[in-house]
Design a protein that fits this description.
The complex is a heterodimer of chains A (408) and B (121).
Chain A: E1 3-6, H1 10-21, E2 27-30, E3 46-48, E4 57-58, H2 59-72, E5 76-78, E6 82-86, E7 91-96, E8 99-104, E9 107-110, E10 114-116, H3 119-122, E11 132-134, H4 135-145, E12 152-156, H5 160-171, E13 175-181, H6 190-197, E14 204-206, E15 208-214, E16 221-226, E17 239-242, E18 245-248, E19 252-254, H7 257-262, E20 286-288, H8 299-317, E21 327-331, E22 335-339, E23 342-343, E24 349-356, E25 360-369, E26 372-382, E27 388-393, E28 401-407
Parallel strand pairs in A: 1-2, 1-9, 2-5, 9-20, 11-18, 12-13, 12-18, 13-14, 21-28
Antiparallel strand pairs in A: 3-4, 6-7, 7-8, 10-19, 15-16, 16-17, 21-23, 22-24, 24-27, 25-26, 25-28
Helix pairs in contact in A: 1-2, 1-8, 4-5, 5-6
Chain B: E1 2-5, E2 14-20, E3 23-27, H1 32-43, E4 46-47, E5 50-56, E6 62-67, E7 71-72, H2 76-83, E8 87-89, E9 97-99, E10 109-111
Parallel strand pairs in B: 5-8
Antiparallel strand pairs in B: 1-2, 2-3, 4-7, 5-6, 6-10, 9-10
């Protein structure tokens, strides 16, 4: 195969569409599930496609548009096929109905998405009764399977899926006692605080966390407490909240087990591959896009990133993408990470995505080339839960690009 | 001044709204959807709602559905309760009407997912 795309969610589908539109003939999506569209299928709420399709769609509708387009363009699909190994020379091994298959690809795009951080990663002590779920698992139960996880829920973490599940459970007749967030600001989008919590009078307790669970067979309740600035629970504030369900919405982790097997270098901050502005990883011919690269807030940005990865994979296959030394992009003051992390010196301009390390009001985003400001952009507010992007012209001679936040 | 967060799109602009009798002045919006939202939110707040209903004869247990346009905030629970009484039969196409004039709002609830009918293997 010319191009092998691992994963048939929004990133994989968008990459396949772009590769076909640029005239590549032999494009494959290898998907482990039965259905294309990935996690969009369980995201039945509105809010997808505002940038790409200029209308507000639900997750399944956004997925279907990509699926229809990929089919009409003649993308090949290997369904219920799980890639178990990829070597540095881009030989893939996957398990499918046909048994164990090996195939060599001219280029590979990693588009495996991300997974939820689960209870084990938090180390909440207490009873191990039934009723503790990640928000995404509960979302699949309610929206796809038609089961309710419980009648009275507490939600830990204010990520978007947690907020959306607070509304879903309420509409389905359950009581959501409250959302508890260890940080001093919400993890999810502002619009979701408004339309998922405020609309239903569900309280959001910032700087609060769950300290213990109670119940050996079934969850009977949780203890919650305020936290200090070091996120340590203040024991005097601990109180019991009765509930039969605890949903966790405490972060997403790029799914890079396969990338590690190939030997792709990963960022300890994003959990995704280190990439240059062409979304090329440290392994030649291997590209990454979507939530496997870094967790996005909006699927529209995933699609745009996938288009870029596919264009560059096509250029690589056609031998137009020479390997050259890269200029590092440094996350300076106020910036937690950037994607990409390096840039090719022959590029004229580059869009840099980044997240801040805290809340910054009336801040200026400054891009520096060897210490000199080459672009400044003012923002009313910058918060870590919302990805920022800035496009800059790259000077012809430069050793290092830096990006920082400056508050007046 | 009233502070609102625009929910028209995921950007979520912070709006500062000034209300002088019938005149509404909006600031902080990045696009005109913000002005429209602020005016509607103060007069007649509406929301889009999505849920899922049972579907028989297909390869899925549940069919995702949505309101075809925003409904008044006060009618949300009534619409959700009404649509939950419906059981659909596959095949279903995106846009198929699941419940017309849901709970008297004049708004249809439509399918957002394609579900194939059962095929004998």
């Amino acid at each position: 195969m010319q191009l092998a795309i691992i994963g048939g969610g929004p990133a994989g589908l968008s990459a396949a569409i772009q590769a076909r539109e640029e005239g590549l003939t032999d494009v494959w999506i290898i998907e482990r599930g039965k259905a294309l569209g990935g996690i969009l299928n369980q995201c039945i709420h509105h809010g997808f496609g505002v940038h790409i399709f200029k209308e507000e769609l639900t997750g399944p509708e956004y997925a279907q548009r990509l699926i229809d387009k990929a089919y009409s363009l003649g993308v090949n699909f290997a369904m219920e096929s799980m890639v178990i190994d990829i070597t540095q020379d881009r030989t893939l091994t996957y398990v499918s109905e046909a048994g164990l298959v090996t195939a060599k690809a001219d280029a590979i795009i990693l588009a495996m998405g991300c997974r939820e951080r689960a209870r084990g990663a938090l180390g909440i002590p207490g009873g191990r009764g039934v009723g503790v779920y990640t928000a995404g698992v509960a979302q699949e139960m309610v929206n796809m399977k038609g089961y309710m996880p419980g009648k009275r829920a507490v939600i830990l973490g204010s990520g978007d899926i947690g907020l959306i599940m607070a509304r879903r459970l309420t509409l389905e007749g359950a009581t959501v006692e409250g959302v508890y967030e260890i940080m001093s600001h919400a993890g999810g989008l502002k619009r979701n605080i408004v339309q998922c919590l405020n609309d239903y009078d569900i309280p959001l307790h910032l700087s609060n966390t769950v300290t213990r669970t109670v119940g050996t067979k079934r969850l009977e309740g949780v203890y919650v407490a305020q936290v200090n600035e070091k996120w340590q629970p203040i024991i005097e504030t601990e109180r019991f909240v009765e509930c039969d369900t605890l949903l966790l919405s405490v972060g997403l982790i790029p799914e890079n087990e396969l990338s590690k097997k190939i030997g792709v270098a990963l960022s300890p901050i994003t959990g995704g591959a280190l990439v240059n502005n062409r979304l090329k990883t440290s392994v030649p011919g291997v590209f990454a896009c979507g939530n496997v690269l870094h967790v996005h807030d909006l699927v529209d940005y995933v699609t745009l990133e996938a288009y870029l990865a596919a264009s560059n994979a096509v250029r690589f296959i056609r031998g137009e993408n020479a390997e050259i030394a890269s200029i590092p992009i440094k996350a300076l003051e106020g910036v937690r990470y950037t994607v990409p992390m390096t840039i090719s010196p022959d590029e004229n301009s580059c869009t840099i995505s980044f997240r801040s390390d805290g809340i910054y009001e009336s801040a200026t985003i400054k891009v520096l080339a060897d210490g000199e400001v080459i672009k400044a952009e003012k923002k009313r507010i910058i918060i870590p839960s919302e990805m920022e992007q800035i496009t800059v012209e790259i000077p012809t001679v430069v050793k290092e690009i830096g990006i920082m936040l400056h508050c007046i | 001044m009233i502070e609102l967060i625009c929910i028209s799109c995921p950007v979520g602009c912070n709006l500062a709204v000034e209300l002088n009798d019938d005149d509404i002045k909006v600031d902080g919006h990045k696009c005109m959807a913000g002005v429209k939202y602020a005016k509607e939110e103060l007069k007649n707040p509406t929301r889009n709602i999505a849920t899922s209903v049972r579907v028989v004869g297909g390869d899925m247990a549940m069919l995702s559905v949505k309101t075809s346009r925003p409904i008044p905030k006060g009618a949300i629970q009534a619409v959700v309760d009404a649509v939950h009484q419906v059981t659909m039969t596959a095949p279903v196409m995106i846009g198929d009407v699941v419940l017309a004039d849901a709970a008297g709002t004049g708004v249809d609830v439509v399918a957002t997912r394609k579900i194939r009918g059962n095929v004998f293997k």
